[in-house]
Structure formats: structure tokens, C-alpha cells
Specification:
There is one protein chain. By secondary structure, the protein is an alpha+beta fold. The chain has one domain (4-100). It is built from three helices and five strands; from the N terminus they run βαβββααβ. Strands 1, 2, 3, 4 and 5 form a five-stranded antiparallel sheet that branches. Strand 3 (42-44) and strand 4 (47-54) form a beta hairpin. It is globular and about 40 Å long.
Length: 102
């Protein structure tokens, strides 16, 4: 199952290039070909929401490589959410992130 995250922002046009570049950097860092997919955004209550789906291969590589070490959370899902959120933040993004269970 591929991890699915919902990101939210009030400035989508500013954030989407940052998020795309950060995820591309992460994919390249992990040497994974098709690492993520960004889905269509939708607006609600002045916020723009969009989902990102991390490929199973990228998720496994992140988990096994040790780059997620120090990410807070009791479960792998919580740790992955915190890691992705902090990674995006370190690249200049200010989106909010939450994992979606489906």
C-alpha cells in the first residue's frame, strides 16, 4: 500500500513548486524512479488541499535507509508523516501535512 498524505496551504501557487522540488530531491536522494504523485488540488474554507502519494518503493527506501531516524511517532505511519513534514519544511515549505488512511 502506498502512503497517502494530505497537504494543506493558504498559498498553493507559492507552495506547489517548493513541494514538487522537495519531493523530487527526496526521490533522487533515495535513487528511486517513480517516487511520488501529486493529485489535483481542491479549495475549502480559504485553504487549498492536495494529496501526495509516495510510492511503495520510496517509502521502503526511506524506512530502511535510516534517514527517518529521529522522526517522532509510535508507528511507522506517524514517523513517515513527521519525516515528510520536516523534510518539506527544511526545503522552505510551510504546508500542513497529515496521513490519510484508506
Amino acid at each position: 500500500m502506498n502512503p497517502l498524505f494530505q497537504l494543506s496551504t493558504k498559498s498553493y501557487d507559492k507552495e506547489i513548486p517548493i513541494v514538487t522540488q522537495a519531493l523530487t530531491d527526496l526521490k533522487n536522494e533515495c535513487a528511486v524512479e517513480n517516487g511520488f504523485k501529486i493529485e489535483k488540488p481542491f479549495d475549502k474554507f480559504g485553504w487549498t488541499f492536495f494529496n501526495i502519494q509516495i510510492s511503495e518503493e520510496l517509502a521502503n527506501t526511506i524506512e530502511k535507509s535510516g534517514i527517518m531516524e529521529g522522526a517522532l511517532g509510535y508507528t511507522i505511519g506517524e514517523q513517515m508523516t513527521n519525516f515528510i513534514g520536516h523534510y518539506l519544511e527544511s526545503k522552505g515549505s510551510s504546508v500542513r501535512i497529515r496521513q490519510i488512511d484508506y
